[in-house]
Queue: 2 jobs
Job 1
Amino acid sequence: MIPSLLGISPAHWAALLAGLKWTVFLSAVGFLAGGLVGFAVALSRISDSLIIRGLAAVYVNLIQGTPLLVLMFVLYFGLPVFGFDMPPLAAACIAMTLFSAAYLGEIWRGCLQSVPRTQWEAADCLALARWERMLLVILPQALRIAVPPTVGFMVQIVKNTSVASVIGMAEMTYIGKLINNATFQPFRIYLIIAGLYFLLCYPLSWLSRRLERKLNVAHR
Amino acid sequence: MSPIVSFRDVHKSFGAVPVLKGLSFEVQKGEVVALIGRSGSGKSTALRCVDRLETVDKGEIIVCGHRVSDPKIELRKLRQDVGIVFQSYNLFPHLTVEQNITLAPRWVKKADKASARALAQEVLAQVGLSEKIDAYPEQLSGGQQQRVAIARSLAMRPQVMLFDEVTSALDPQLTEEVLKVIEELARQGMTMLLVTHEMAFAARIADRVIFMHEGLIHETGSRDILRNPNTPELKSFVGVGL
Ligand SMILES: Nc1ncnc2c1ncn2[C@@H]1O[C@H](COP(=O)(O)OP(=O)(O)OP(=O)(O)O)[C@@H](O)[C@H]1O
Ligand SMILES: [Mg+2]
């Protein structure tokens, strides 16, 4: 065994990687649960019902107008006041979901609306039901447009999971703080953490750019 | 026999702008009616009202027995009876020609895969594009896309076909191939209401011509009115058109 790598002991590396696992976990929750809720938000934003549209708009504006940090505080410190038991993991998962849903919902609403009006109308004229129109005509076209910005936003999700460290969620940034408290090598440890975030995010950015180029070529 | 399309005193405004000001006309089964008039006279709006893409403010529209002006109309039934083709084809770009054509038959009419494909082959033969069944829309010329759009409508076996300036985006040669398809449909007895700027074409196939002017029917009659117009407005209109 190598006694230390980049000046970090094996035990600290193990802790960092455990933190990395939680970072990935929170990112996945943010993307999957946030995507699910976000899809509902996107559909609500283009609903025929003024009330549903309005509620969705309020939700999006509320979340987009609140720092993620404050959202985490509200869930972690605020809800227990009303008797809700709120461990850091639950608060972090809910916050990431609410956060991602608002942004993904807006991204996807834009994608749905960028499918030309005439395509919606052509589907109507063929007697397709609303859900058939969405599923068979609009979604397949919107999906192609949606992939690059969606993958791009995944980078934001990954980076924003670090905010969960403030409520004691043991993800990578939090572990980094603990290691730094023990070793007093902030430059070294945070540089390593930056490197690990980069390793998570760069493939996503790269993929997003590539998909965008591919889409542009396909559209000519 | 009751008419396929019937408009009675139909009014429609966009905001404060009145577009249809009490439109009344009928289209009988098997009839080919050409709707002509200057830009902005309300032709497209009238056509869109037939398929309830626009709702009317006042008046009654009945299409194939469906009371279109009724807020509780069953749109799915109405739109199975009405085929409509626009200037901009509006094919679904992510689907092949076959998939474009069979989408509605399969989902709305629950046709199975084999009979839907047979149907696609049949309507494509009708528009002379059998060999393009597996192509994507972007691989087709404008004229071919428009013929596929017509085939897609025909696949629902509509009782009436609506055409809104379907050749306006095409050059003369492609226009001709699309007009031929429409003419053949007319010959087979399809009921049609068509908005067109092709006066020569209207004069050739229309049983009846409706000249719209400022949201109302200004002059109507057999195709002969295109050669011998009565009103000065139609006179000046065909003067430039024919
Ligand atoms: N969705 C809409 N909202 C507002 N105004 C509209 C709308 N659709 C049409 N109009 C207006 O209604 C009037 C009639 O339009 P319409 O498209 O029916 O005319 P048209 O006879 O088909 O003309 P063209 O020959 O140019 O196609 C025009 O003044 C147009 O600007
Ligand atoms: Mg028009």
Job 2
Amino acid sequence: MAQRIPAQILSQHSDADVTVTSNAATDAYADTTNNGKANVDTNTRLKVAVHKFASCDGCQLAFLNAGADLLTVNRLFDIRHFAEAGLLDNRPLIERDIDVAIIEGSVCTAEDIQRLQQIRDSSQRLITIGACATSGGIQALRNMADAQQWLAEIYARPESLSSLDTATPISQHVKVDLELWGCPVNTEQLLHALRNLLWHSLPENNKDKVCMECKRAGNICVMVTENKPCLGPVTQGSCGAICPHHGRDCYGCYGPAENTNTDSLSQRFSGFGLLPEEIARKFLLINSQSKPFLEEGKKWHNQLTSQPQTSDKGLRL
Amino acid sequence: MRDQPHFLPRLQLQSLLDLLIAEDYQCMGPQIQSNAIVFKPFSQVTALTQGITDYQDAGHYRLQPYDSPRNFHWNCSAQLLKPYFFQAEQVLWQVEKQQDGQLVFCQTQSHQPKRAFFGVRACDIAALKLQDQHFLHSEFVDDHYAENRRNNLFIAVTCSKAGANCFCHRTSDGPAITDGYDLLLDELNEGFLLQTGSDEGERLCQQLLQTQVLEIASSEQQQQADQSLSQVRQTLFDNDDQRLQSHQSDQSQPPQFKAQQQSQQQSQQQHQQPKHLPFDPELIRQVLMQNLDHPHWQELAETCLSCGNCTSVCPTCFCSSQRDIPELDGSQAQHVRQWDSCFSQGHGYIHGYQVRGKTQLRYQQWLTHKLVNWYEQYGRSGCVGCGRCVTWCPVGIDFTQAAMQICQDNGQISGDRVRGDRVRGDRVSKDREGGHNDN
Ligand code: SF4
Ligand code: SF4
Ligand code: SF4
Ligand code: SF4
Ligand code: SF4
């Protein structure tokens, strides 16, 4: 059964920060799975490797929490490497011949860059999962601070660490075929993407605002009833609007939606009585490195400090 | 019916409920959830809202205590009928893969219980008619909507107050309820005037009479109900007048459009502009459609979040998108329809081309569909004046102000026009009042 992708999803490629595989890439993928080997090798399942970079492991849990579906995943895919689940591929990275590499975490050390390049070179497809891999994650807050100073203040022996001054998303270093946003991603989102890979079709790429899901779920808007500063109107859905469902404001963990108007939203927050620094922190949190959030956050932070801060623990913008 | 009006004492509301439950109706009524009034199943009148009222303004909704035994002293709930009939998510069909690889498609059919809705307003009924027109009375009947629409009982309640965002008088959809109900209640402190509007309503009424639940309404009670309705109507017009006056004395000021800067306190004083729409179809067609490059559209686009809250809460909006939700093992998939909005990206996408990439174009689609193109599709405006889109817009954009602003700058709206509307409104309401008394 060939599940065709709704045209609207293809249209979303024009967004600068969306990186879904191109059609050409999907076709190439079909070639690798349908080559002559199938007749010889009984095991034609796609070979999958899950890798971790700087992260909390929460997105890998989206796999491990899949319950009975995990058995199905294991039946449909040949999972070669997944350290958190206890599966190790002991061959050197570059010799591994992987169909789909799934990456959690951001790039924080020089070693990371090297390892990532090797993973890319030995994988047909590369998918990032979660805010860290996709936009740097919470550790990317240090990109706006004096990282060396933080190290000195936090660790007893900072000289024993070798860490880059920035935490950066995977796409800043290698080509990424598909990005799954979220902190953490959820199981349905992940399984949906895997299912579509098997069909050689593009997974759904939901860039609509959380508000759409929120209203479909029948939630009551916390901005309208409680003046809570909700990021739902600028954040992409797929989370199921769980935060508003529990009466709290969205904190933007799925990253920016398409066509965001962060300016209007933050002015509304200001009207609710939030201070510039509080507004800045709304945007500079989980997806601080995504362009719309970074720009909006900086704008409010700069209002507070007309000169860049260099001498204290605060963010230097 | 109205010349022999019935009276349902407050303590007997439970009897009506019990009767409906005994007849297998699932009763849906207003209850408080997450700081708002929502509709949920109930079986005891004690579950209903009581001693509470609402305050609504642009981007602002609050419940407030109200010292009275009344259950229905509030205006539009967050949502009412739309989610029950045009469901936010609906499985349209399912496909299964057989052993031999064949695909078998089957249409899903939901079977809803008989449902009785307590507290439906004039604007809700008007909106339901528009949805029926779209889903039932168009060229193609929507089976899922039709199924959801079967066996419903509407127990309408006449509004006893008008909110700051209500403008049903301007769309001639309220506040009086003239048809579309099975039972109609007018709430007084000690109980309800009860009228019937359908065979089913009449049948239920006869049952209540047999069990001596109903009394004969006194002429004072009827008067009270009529006065209450007149007062609501008066409030609606007073709101217009007040806003118009402050608007006219305020002309030199730039349009107070960026509602988002306002604190809560300011927002309470915010409705400084008249809330009325030029509902002459020809006029609005000319003015809106000929001024698509009016600078005010740009101002709107700067404020609008393109979030789709307005279309989601609008009881008449009917747009949807569809998606497939496959089983992981590929053995079956569900094809789901879900609410969409002209503020979303997919809505403006036609093969290979995005026709509404920018918010300005999306806002224009929303406003011109509601106020212009709906006439061509369904012979009237797509707005019933409930004000939900104004209340539930997170940045408090008032779409009536938006339309006003554009028409006003073209000299199409003036105090006179407002007066003219009002005369027309009065005539409509007189007719209705007449109907109310003489039927
Ligand atoms: S609670 Fe947040 S996500 Fe939900 S509708 Fe309101 S602003 Fe949007
Ligand atoms: S456009 Fe607004 S006021 Fe009119 S029916 Fe829809 S939600 Fe109500
Ligand atoms: S096009 Fe927009 S305004 Fe018209 S029905 Fe659809 S969502 Fe509502
Ligand atoms: S718009 Fe009219 S009918 Fe609807 S709640 Fe307001 S006053 Fe009542
Ligand atoms: S008008 Fe308000 S509710 Fe509608 S899309 Fe714009 S910001 Fe959202």
